[in-house]
Design a protein that fits this description.
This protein has a two-stranded antiparallel sheet with strand order 1-2. Helix 4 runs parallel beside helix 8, helix 6 packs antiparallel against helix 11 and helix 8 crosses helix 9. Helices cover about 75% and strands about 0% of the residues. It is elongated, with a radius of gyration of 21 Å. The N and C termini lie far apart (about 70 Å). A hairpin with a 2-residue loop joins strand 1 and strand 2. It is mainly alpha-helical and about 230 residues long.
Length: about 230
Amino acid sequence: MRKPANTVELKIDSGRDQPRQKLLTAARQVFAEVGFRAATVREICARAEQNVAAVNYHFGDKFGLYAETLKHETVFNEEMADRELGALAPKEALRTFIVRVFRSFGSADRPAFYTQVMMHELAAPSEGLSAVLDQVIRPRVQVLEKIVGLLIELPPAHPKTRLCVLSITGQIAHYVNSRALISSIWPEWKLNSEDLNEVANHIADYSLAALQTVKRDFSQAASRTRKTR
């Protein structure tokens, strides 16, 4: 299997790594390069220097291996959300969330593992999409729902909260999915780590201003409704 230009280079230490870890390391390489659908157990095991039966033994099947690689990449979960919200004011929590998401994308010439995996799934959804949703996307959305809910003083599951969450994630997704287009329009803008940090803070500033307006308008509308009753 030929490696594409954008690949995750991870060294496998055959002297120290256990078989399970070898498989996870190799799987991250292959899934990042070709996605879940095109990845083969044979290729993963060849890179891990393991028998093909090892995947079934340790993970059940290719899907189980895929889910486990994503699980190791998940940095936003309920526990982290509680720590973030407990330690930071909501405005700072939102900024921290957005900056951390952008940092996890990796550099422009070497996207992070989960970013490459998500791009494969968005381009050609496979049966592995459910694992991406469960292990990567949904935990982040749940964190963001809590933060936004605090900012606009509505429950995390409120329709207005979710619309605001979609607006924020839509901005983030645009920069992830349109890097090549953005670089074509503005070749001097390489979207390196420094640029991404600037973009993240811009999205935070823009979103915080918008959320303030949403909170005010929703509060005024609710007040008018109570007066008409």
